[in-house]
Write a structure and sequence with these properties.
By secondary structure, the chain is mostly helical. The radius of gyration is 32 Å and the shape is elongated. The chain contains one helix and no strands. The longest helix has about 50 residues.
Length: about 100
């Protein structure tokens, strides 16, 4: 248990361990660089797709309005409050005109 380690063997072991860690760092850095490149390509692709589907804002006619967002079925259409009862989900709203 209380073994004395040879200083030369310890130095060789630590040098080998350092080389192994440096190799792992290089591998991880290459993987990070690859992911960064893929993110940049995906960002550019998404930007092009958005411009194709919505048109470039500078080229969009001024009288064209963006599409309205449909009301949420879980929020009151009057107050936009999620705690307020929605008329579709209450029994107080008649289903037929009487």
């Amino acid at each position: 248990m209380g073994q004395d380690l040879d200083p030369r063997a310890t130095g060789v072991f630590l040098t080998a361990e350092a080389a192994l860690l440096e190799a792992r760092i290089r591998i991880l850095q290459e993987a990070i660089d690859e992911v960064s490149t893929r993110i940049e390509r995906s960002t550019k692709r998404l930007r092009r797709l958005r411009e194709q589907s919505h048109g470039n804002p500078a080229e969009r006619p001024r009288n064209r309005r963006p599409r309205p967002i449909p009301p949420s079925p879980t929020r009151s259409p009057v107050t936009n409050d999620p705690s307020a009862p929605h008329p579709v989900h209450t029994a107080e709203v008649p289903l037929t005109k009487g």
